Amino acid sequence: MGSHQKGEHGGSSNGSGGGAVVVDKGVDFAQYFCTYAFLYHQKEMLSDRVRMDAYFNAIFENKHHFNGKTVLDVGTGSGILAIWSAQAGARKVYAVEATKMSEHARTIVKAHNLQDVVEVLEGSVEDVTLPEKVDVIISEWMGYFLLRESMFDSVICARDRWLKPGGVMYPSHARMWMAPIRSGLGDQKKSDYDGAMDDWSAFLEDTKEHYGFDMSVLTKPFSEEQRKYYLQTSLWQNLHPHQVIGTAAIIKEIDCLTATVNDILKVTSNSISSITLENTRLSGFGGWFDVHFRGSKVNPAQQEIELTTAPSINNGTHWGQQVFLLHPHIDISEGDDLSLSFTMNRSKENHRLMEVELECEVKRSSGKQLPPFRNKFYIE
Amino acid sequence: MGSHQKGEHGGSSNGSGGGAVVVDKGVDFAQYFCTYAFLYHQKEMLSDRVRMDAYFNAIFENKHHFNGKTVLDVGTGSGILAIWSAQAGARKVYAVEATKMSEHARTIVKAHNLQDVVEVLEGSVEDVTLPEKVDVIISEWMGYFLLRESMFDSVICARDRWLKPGGVMYPSHARMWMAPIRSGLGDQKKSDYDGAMDDWSAFLEDTKEHYGFDMSVLTKPFSEEQRKYYLQTSLWQNLHPHQVIGTAAIIKEIDCLTATVNDILKVTSNSISSITLENTRLSGFGGWFDVHFRGSKVNPAQQEIELTTAPSINNGTHWGQQVFLLHPHIDISEGDDLSLSFTMNRSKENHRLMEVELECEVKRSSGKQLPPFRNKFYIE
């Protein structure tokens, strides 16, 4: 589920796998979980028709996975996936929710007369104790660009603790995608940044003149702070397919049945993208994800369902795409190739936010190679 | 200093006086302090000419308080008050700052060649250790409507630990004010709320029709959540003096030399306000504050300075005023009187945010009394 979050100071400890940092649970709740306690936020996600249809179809077109089975819903929110699992025939559903939204989930379960099947448990899935292992783990855990929020860590933990051998994951697979794009936003953000720096200059002069207080030693850190804010922070956008100017590349593939936290701590990828539009500009890159509901090899889905957040005219989702802008843009045309090196790590200050390094080399259709450039970005 | 802050879940412990709750320091840092680590935020406060002039004049027109003396600056931020104290002749200034902004303060101190006088200490003033007690404690601690952010707790702690007997506080006094106002915002917020509820109804129907998922049991909690957000949360406004429709009343007075945390945990006041505008509407109430720099009785200021955040055409501040709106407004006219009962407590979830209860009785100039009404508000 995509949610807005300020990137702020915080330690970390989640005890869910090698290499993970220590997350302070109080800080984690104050910064992250609490946003999900708002009904307005749940409504936003429930109103995402593409999202809801995918899970609805995945469940009801694969009732064999649910009928007479036990299910764990990680991060049940309003309880909808748990209720659908019960309606698809589940014998028992454990619906775990860390926030007080669990009380609303319990109310809705009762309103649907499913309290004998669906048991809502308030707490984190790392801490909760179930009376039995389950056949299915279902969860809508995806953040912007898939891994923002790092909620999949919790799903992995739930899987390792509670999924029976031979059990299935819903969704079963996930992929991250990236493509070169064009966008007017780059110029706008550069203009905003320049405005902020002009403003700073005027402020410096005013303050020096009026109070004899000289802050010019802070111009460099201020420009870094503003640069990060205006130019280096990825943006939420609902891209139009026409903005995608070259071939999209898969930069990460995840098998939800076998992935470890270590597998997702650091995402690295080298890919080539061919420009497909004539005489255009490379403004930056758009990142998105898709997930699939395929069941497992030994227990496959009867009907495979896909949920994609790729740029779309009619089927946009609340996730949008994450946009990484270059300053300045690069003039580019059909036949040019981009050699892309992508690295994503978790922010040291907040394990639910990301830092990205993009290295890009343009090879013109003429054969000429531009010097490679590397940019740092922040997914906040 | 006024700053925007999401009101979120968090425990609390600050050990600064009887009755105070336990504040989790990690959560407190993640929710509150961190916003002050941004240069952009410091710039906003430094750009507030009314604020800066008041402190500048308070210091430089009362050099006798600083010359050859020791000073503690609580929450030094960029270091400006500490530097001014040194420039006014202080022998030694301890500039305490909880965030990494302290590093910038140290840089600026050095740029002004004052590192032998001004010592910047990173840490909370509750934890820091000074080599000596001080003659003056200076701090810009005021939040929206004075007490939002509860930073004065830290100033009290600093005073009790580090101020010499006979020492002075800068500022020395503070007051909270309230007045009846008119505003077009009330209608707007009501309209936004109605829109949100209409939207919810449509959402309920859609979800029920499309997925057989009935969330009508959540209409009541959703409406409460939206009501709190649109109608009961105080708003930041820069009121025009023409919007003040009746006499303003002092609802709290603080002597910074003697106040205890207990004195400010709960603010209660009964006051009368006379309407001064004919045929107008009571849309709600505006709250603001002023502080004074008077020194102490035994060591008074030579030049008393006032910093007020009352509604003003030319001398507005970044604090604005806090506006508490009534729904619906009340038609009112010159000669009518308002009997106002005001209570403000700290939020249980976050001691830096407030909950307000306003009880109001209108007595018409005719003598007729309207039934009293009571409203709850949140300062987030």
Automatic annotation (TrEMBL), chains A, B:
Organism: Dovyalis caffra
Pfam families (alphabetical): Methyltransf_25 (PF13649), PRMT_C (PF22528)
Enzyme Commission code: 2.1.1.319
Name of the molecule in the record: Protein arginine N-methyltransferase PRMT10
Subunit structure: Ring-like homodimer.
Ranges for domain Methyltransferase: 71-167
Reactions it catalyzes: L-arginyl-[protein] + 2 S-adenosyl-L-methionine = N(omega),N(omega)-dimethyl-L-arginyl-[protein] + 2 S-adenosyl-L-homocysteine + 2 H(+)
Domain Protein arginine N-methyltransferase, chain residue ranges per copy: 191-363
